[in-house]
Design a protein that fits this description.
mainly alpha, flat, 122 residues, 3 helices
């Protein structure tokens, strides 16, 4: 069975073709190989800078990275728009403040339900 649109396979037996004997060498050369790079002797080059860097420049880079991180953190904490202000207000609430707000909402809903029930009773 096979594919309707496919071609009929040619049953090729690898032993039908002439091969080589055990002692003979292959007729074609294998793919050429790249040469091995020479070994580096002495001190290697430092990446990311021009020439040698001193300890003070490493500290300058560290302090610059720290100040950039602090700047990003301060920008991330600023509220953005109405939703950002609302989120900041929610984050400032304590657990008891949140529970009190939910409790007041529930009391208001019960009062409205009682008023509607009293109105429908009469």
């Amino acid at each position: 069975m096979g594919n309707i649109c496919g071609k009929q396979s040619q049953d090729v037996d690898p032993f039908d073709q002439p091969g080589r004997t055990v002692g003979s060498t292959p007729s074609a050369n294998p793919a050429p190989r790249a040469s091995v790079p020479p070994k580096v002797t002495g001190q290697g080059r430092q990446l990311g800078g021009y020439g040698t860097t001193s300890n003070t420049s490493k500290q300058d880079a560290r302090s610059a990275a720290a100040s950039a991180a602090e700047e990003r953190a301060s920008k991330a904490n600023q509220p953005k728009g109405k939703l950002g202000r609302d989120l900041a207000k929610e984050k400032q609430q304590t657990r008891t403040g949140t529970l009190n707000a939910v409790s007041q909402d529930e009391r208001r809903r019960r009062d409205v339900d009682q008023t509607a029930e009293a109105r429908n009773w009469n």
